[in-house]
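Hi W.,

Here's what went into the run:
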Amino acid sequence: GAVVSQHPSWVICKSGTSVKIECRSLDFQATTMFWYRQFPKQSLMLMATSNEGSKATYEQGVEKDKFLINHASLTLSTLTVTSAHPEDSSFYICSASRAGGTDTGELFFGEGSRLTVL
Amino acid sequence: AQSVTQLGSHVSVSEGALVLLRCNYSSSVPPYLFWYVQYPNQGLQLLLKYTSAATLVKGINGFEAEFKKSETSFHLTKPSAHMSDAAEYFCAVSGSSGGSNYKLTFGKGTLLTVNP
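Here's what came out:
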């Protein structure tokens, strides 16, 4: 159990377009989902925390109008990169905490989505 | 505030040799500590976690880690490396400050290469 799936795995888009990435918890309800960005050969940088039915909390330096996060249900969160530019090219990873699970901070990660903006 | 330091961005071992990946943390509250593994173009997979129970934690794929509070360390070891262990390894810490046990702080990662 505790599977998190991201879609798409790979996406290439033109500069100026918007791209939506989905993060789904397949076999559990996720109270909180997290979005990270990972540059090549670097660690994960937390972008924002989203709770179902409320506005996402963004980390310092992350543009909320650029990276729109929606957490419409307990199994789905979406990240939309608006007006994408080449510098937005990166590997985006989501994670989820399980509702009713042991409160030990364990997260379940998606497979990641690689965005390339031309 | 929490932080994680992984000593050595790249560790290279021979197949069958001991694997030792170092992680030191700082935390103002009792920490929860994790080791994750990441294969190329994939998400993170949990190897093991420390949640204030036994200080020696056993994980998947033969890995284990020992929590040493006096040294603020949580080093990852495996007695005998296998070629399939080649990957990026991340140490992470979370804590209960601010009511969230889930806000992980990651180290910069250690790339493990295994030579035949």
